[in-house]
Design goal:
The chain is α+β, with helices and mostly antiparallel strands. It contains six helices and five strands. Bound molecules: FE2/S2 (inorganic) cluster (2 copies).
């Protein structure tokens, strides 16, 4: 079935079965490969994107269930105009292998939209579904605090 999705501010027409997960629409059809496949069962968070600002696991959202505007890590900012959270990620050298990181950033961005100054405990709670094999959790927390501060100063 032909469906039009708004992704990162632009319309994309896709002609795929209703039950294709949004993750594969993004990666295979639209070519936005910043969103990663990890577990496929909502257990790792690697595939996290936003729908109308809410962090969702794109491996678990069928194409026909996409209810609003999709934002991926490519739509959060660009290398020339990074979002505060992306800038903080670079400054704190958060990524190691990098595989989980776009999902981490998208989850963190939705946390900061809801809670502009989260505590360590609030960060741990919001980020608990995003797994990192490399163990970058302390740097993730530091980058989220830094982005929160920067956003409050802006
Ligand atoms: S790939 Fe979607 S949560 Fe792991
Ligand atoms: S940076 Fe390697 S899995 Fe998180």
């Amino acid at each position: 079935m032909s469906t039009t999705l708004r992704i990162n501010g632009k319309p994309h027409q896709v002609d795929l079965p209703d039950d294709v997960p949004l993750l594969w629409v993004l990666r295979d059809e639209v070519g936005l490969t910043g969103t990663k496949f990890g577990c496929g069962v909502a257990a790792c968070g690697a595939c996290t994107v936003h729908i109308d600002g809410e962090a969702v696991r794109s491996c678990q959202v069928a194409l026909s269930d996409v209810w609003g505007e999709v934002t991926t890590v490519e739509g959060l900012g660009t290398p020339d105009a990074m979002a505060a959270i992306q800038q903080a990620w670079v400054e704190h050298q958060v990524a190691q292998c990098g595989y989980c990181q776009s999902g981490q950033i998208m989850q963190a961005a939705s946390l900061l939209a809801e809670n502009p100054a989260p505590s360590d405990a609030e960060i741990n709670e919001a980020m608990q579904g995003n797994l990192c094999r490399c163990g970058t959790y302390p740097r993730i927390r530091a980058a989220i605090h830094a982005a929160a501060q920067k956003m409050q100063e802006a």
